[in-house]
């Protein structure tokens, strides 16, 4: 008798959780992150799925159901961001029709959005820094917010007049109106996202995550100081960098816990960008990167949330250091880290995911893909503790026949006997 | 004195290196000699990077120290600094991709290792590479890309070199986050370099082999 969607949902959750807990599941679970692959697969443009919530839902449903994977990542809030980006005039992104040519992925424009002499302002009062300095830099339409009063400075009867005065400025009023409208648009997007999750649940598919967290070093580097800026800070102002990371660490944890609890999906995505091999010395990794990240990982685990940590690039030299977390409570998703060494070091510690090269999925043959997956399952999938995924998720340009070959092969060869 | 500047700079002692450079300038030392010493220091930095003693932040920091010394020395330069160049390299991030961190590190490393670099910047169509090679007569082309969309843009750029009749006149190297040997084959380029030092080694090998 065919299994009901509810039974399939439970079966998939169990398969996925068994792998995380380092038990041997019935077979290798498949949990994919897509960016624009489903759009290509469904014959839609990248712009379509960024702006049209129904089209995004349709494309993702098709890719998930056709491949019949175990766990999916929703496009809502990762891909369906066109309207909100546009309404805020987000200067940190380029996307189709806004600085990216043709049918291409949105891209992050890194910059020195916080100057080196602003650390004290950030550390002293991050909320004020965000409100009156940072938001006005990264969102074109919120520039007028820099004229707002410094709230702790306008106490007692001054509060009434000094606090309210800037709101009479027509430009500030306009910025607030845009915020209201953008909020309404975000509401529409999240409502559609909620419907999509319900629909997928009814079809029997659990979702991978709805919340995100950062390594404190990446948080400062990606969003505030830029790669060059933060690298120089390690030499020129290490104490300020460390203090800023300390300040932001509990904020990162609380915000991820809040999202995980609000959505009920107790898994949090932590994409890492600047701690990989070559991007800093081992000593710098142990000083600036790992301690903060470890606090975030432990903070989430403490709230019974599974951190899904994407170690971009090659992190082979970090393996011994990052093995120091509680057993069976997280996923380490690797891109180019050596699979043999990773399994050796982490087999009794943490579940591994990823590792199928983008180059193979985009340009290899189906046989190449099968050969690679066989080795991956033999080495990393041995005795459980592996979840199938592309090295950075499924690349936008992957050949559909290769993605199917990976899934079909794993469904058969990935069974534990 | 000369050794002091080379050593402090190579050891990334910013304040000391700047102090020595300033004192030498004040004492009337030849500014060109100071630049030459800085260059020697950068060579040591490059070697330490190649052997795994230094990492990208060290490169960035050494570049920052070099920049400050160059700015300090510049107003005192009378003659023109004649630096012997090993060869010309046209460099850029391919069409559709706007990432430039890796691109600029490769530019910096090739430059400090004696190459004349023409950095086109990001999101460059194949025509821009072809035109620049024609204009400069560069023998080496470096294609950078971080996203998977760069696979096809790189392939198109290599093909454009063929169509323009330049393919046998240039050596083409590729690199970036998602690039590997598979993509080298796919694009028909000559080599894949894993990091900035690999780019320098390839360029030296190709120039030497001419």
Would you mind describing this structure in some detail?
The complex is a heterodimer of chains A (417) and B (210). With 417 residues, chain A is of the alpha/beta class. Chain A has a single domain, classed as TIM Barrel, CATH 3.20.20.210. Helices cover 54% and strands 10% of the residues of chain A. Chain A has helices at residues 5-20, 37-41, 46-51, 53-67, 82-88, 119-124, 126-138, 156-164, 170-203, 216-236, 238-263, 282-302, 319-322, 339-346, 358-363, 366-379, 400-413, and strands at 31-32, 71-72, 93-96, 99-100, 107-108, 211-212, 267-272, 306-311, 331-334, 351-356, 386-390. Chain A has a six-stranded parallel sheet with strand order 6-7-8-9-10-11. In chain A, strands 4-3-5 form a three-stranded mixed sheet, with no helix packed on it. In chain A, helix 4 packs parallel to helix 9 (170-203), helix 10 packs antiparallel against helix 12 and helix 11 (238-263) runs parallel beside helix 12 (282-302). Chain A is globular. The mean pLDDT of chain A is 96. Chain B is α/β, with parallel strands linked by helices and 210 residues long. Chain B folds into two domains: 2-76, Methyltransferase, Methionine Synthase (B12-binding Domains), Chain A, domain 1, CATH 1.10.1240.10; 87-208, Cobalamin-binding domain (Rossmann fold, 3-Layer(aba) Sandwich), CATH 3.40.50.280. Chain B contains nine helices and five strands. Chain B has a five-stranded parallel sheet with strand order 2-1-3-4-5, sandwiched between helices. In chain B, helix 7 (150-163) links the parallel strand 3 and strand 4 (171-175). In chain B, helix 1 packs antiparallel against helix 2 and helix 6 crosses helix 7. Chains A and B meet through strand 4, helix 10 and helix 15 of A and helix 4 and helix 8 of B.
